[in-house]
């Protein structure tokens, strides 16, 4: 009788990264007419939406509109090649415009360009140092607040286009909303935002309706961007002027870009290379600076339009968004100039509604959510909307989350007396995570006057995380020693034992 053949063990296949997934590679898009059509049309829609925003961001920065438009072109094309998140769009942004505006106002355009180049170099350095790994410390509640805040900001940014305008604007916006929300129920062959833009443009031109247009936002360039070097002296004084703004621009741009990349990861259910995205943003800003652009980072509204509304999934859509932008503003500026702003307002309102996490604000969700999580979400969203700066909101949310976590964990520490039957020795069992928030009260949990001559502190169920805890244990030992009592600390795990051995008795009073 023969024994049965052994069962063959197989290792589960590892999930593919975005570039390995057939639906997220440029080559697969080029081979599939349907996929290629989606990517091309998505790029066209994004390019049309980028034009008025790039112009308005240039106005915020106090520079010629060409600097914003050229920045959007070079950022999109470069990040499509070197970035780590396929389908994410980078261009001129309000966050970067606000940071570099003082440089342009006080020192001129050449210093602004030098700031952009230096900021890009800082981003490359931070990317190489692994700053993207810090994203693991951003809690989900902060991400939810970030998403809801960006959706709110996108919506609020459209309101100025609805104030003191002809009544026809409201009718056109309403018609645009019907198209972008209703067309996907009938067909998804052509992106609804593109149909809305083309339809409303044809209607306004054919009927001669006088409404604000893209051309009213600012002058479009008539020539291609050219390679240039900023005319600034290469001195320490120049570095002193631009360095603070460059570092701030680098940090704000990276934070906004990495959070946007994480958001796209969640939407597409794929994983992106955040480290590559970090230094890729730097490379894109360096290229942008040398072509006379104002710098930028990931643009959240257009990224949501590209990924969520248009269904793009590859680098091709981002690359084409930049190419189409340049073609439209340089070669077809007269045609682009007649697009009614009402069409773009309708599209951006659609993006805001689609991006908002409506599930997070349902009464049933709010009832189940812990109070601390709700505070984190609201503080992130509130600060972001109040300051119009996503970086401020995220930093605030992370800080609130850290405080809430420390407060919650601090209350999980417990000190109990263990009955060992030995009256000459009292044993205390300490459980929980011991760090600055939980160990400050530890010193008050012992009966110094009533305990016998020998005390044992059992830390088998605890862990020492910082110097504050070691200092607290030193204080306990000192208080007992003043009364002639001997203290023995036992059952530390390996990490706690190393920390305690290294720091015990070395911190000094008051530490």
From TrEMBL:
Q: Which Pfam families does the annotation name?
A: STAS, Sulfate_transp
Annotated membrane-spanning segments are: 40-61, 67-83, 111-135, 142-159, 165-183, 195-215, 241-261, 282-304, 316-336, 343-361, 381-405
Q: Which InterPro entries match?
A: Membrane-Transporter-like, SLC26A/SulP_dom, STAS_dom, STAS_dom_sf
Keywords from the UniProt entry: Membrane, Transmembrane, Transmembrane helix
Q: Which CDD domains match?
A: STAS_SulP_like_sulfate_transporter (cd07042)
Judging by the UniProt lineage, the source's domain of life is Bacteria
The taxonomy runs: Bacteria, Bacillati, Actinomycetota, Actinomycetes, Micrococcales
**Where's it found, cell-wise?**
Membrane
Q: Which Gene3D superfamilies does its entry note?
A: STAS domain (3.30.750.24)
**Predominant location:** membrane
Instruction: Report domain STAS positions.
Output: 428-511
Q: Whose protein is this, by species? A: Cellulomonas cellasea DSM 20118
State the GO CC annotations. Answer: membrane
Membrane disposition: Multi-pass membrane protein
Which protein, by its recorded name, is this? Sulfate permease
């Amino acid at each position: 009788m023969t024994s049965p053949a052994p069962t063959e063990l197989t290792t589960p296949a590892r999930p593919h990264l975005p570039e390995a997934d057939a639906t997220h590679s440029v080559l697969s898009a080029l081979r599939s007419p349907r996929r290629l059509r989606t990517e091309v049309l998505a790029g066209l829609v994004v390019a049309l939406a980028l034009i008025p925003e790039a112009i308005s961001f240039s106005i915020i920065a106090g520079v010629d509109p060409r600097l914003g438009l050229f920045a959007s072109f070079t950022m999109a094309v470069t990040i499509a090649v070197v970035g780590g998140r396929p389908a994410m769009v980078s261009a001129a942004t309000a966050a970067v415009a606000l940071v570099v505006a003082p440089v342009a106002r006080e020192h001129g355009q050449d210093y602004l360009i030098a700031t952009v180049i230096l900021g890009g170099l800082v981003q490359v350095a931070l990317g190489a140092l692994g700053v993207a790994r810090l994203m693991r410390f951003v809690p989900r509640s902060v991400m939810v607040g970030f998403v809801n805040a960006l959706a709110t900001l996108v919506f609020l940014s459209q309101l100025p286009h609805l104030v003191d305008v002809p009544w026809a604007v409201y009718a056109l916006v309403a018609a645009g909303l019907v198209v972008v929300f209703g067309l996907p129920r009938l067909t998804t062959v052509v992106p609804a935002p593109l149909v809305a833009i083309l339809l409303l443009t044809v209607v306004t031109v054919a009927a001669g309706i006088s409404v604000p247009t893209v051309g009213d936002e600012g002058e479009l360039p008539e020539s291609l961007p050219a390679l240039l070097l900023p005319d600034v002296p290469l001195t320490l004084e120049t570095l002193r002027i631009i360095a603070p703004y460059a570092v701030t621009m680098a940090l704000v741009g990276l934070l906004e870009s990495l959070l946007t990349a994480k958001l796209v990861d969640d939407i597409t259910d794929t994983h992106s290379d955040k480290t590559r995205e970090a230094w890729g943003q730097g490379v894109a800003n360096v290229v942008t600076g040398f072509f006379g652009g104002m710098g930028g980072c990931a643009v959240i509204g257009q990224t949501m339009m590209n990924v969520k509304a248009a269904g793009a999934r590859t680098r091709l859509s981002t690359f084409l968004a930049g190419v189409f932008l340049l073609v439209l503003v340089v070669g077809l500026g007269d045609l682009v100039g007649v697009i009614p702003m009402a069409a773009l307002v309708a599209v951006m309102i659609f993006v805001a509604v689609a991006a908002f996490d409506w599930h997070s604000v349902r009464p049933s969700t709010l009832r189940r959510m812990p109070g601390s999580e709700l505070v984190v979400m609201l503080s992130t969203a509130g600060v972001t909307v109040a300051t119009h700066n996503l970086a401020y909101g995220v930093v605030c949310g992370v800080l609130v989350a850290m405080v809430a976590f420390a407060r919650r964990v601090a209350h999980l520490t417990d000190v109990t007396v263990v009955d060992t039957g030995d009256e000459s020795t009292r044993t205390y069992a300490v459980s929980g995570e011991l760090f600055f928030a939980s160990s400050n009260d530890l010193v008050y949990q012992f009966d110094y006057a009533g305990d016998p001559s020998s005390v044992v502190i059992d830390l088998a169920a605890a862990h020492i995380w910082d110097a504050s805890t070691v200092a607290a244990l030193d204080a306990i030992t000192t208080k007992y020693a003043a009364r002639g009592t001997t203290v023995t600390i036992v059952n530390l795990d390996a990490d706690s034992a190393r920390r305690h051995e290294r720091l015990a008795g070395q911190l000094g009073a008051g530490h």
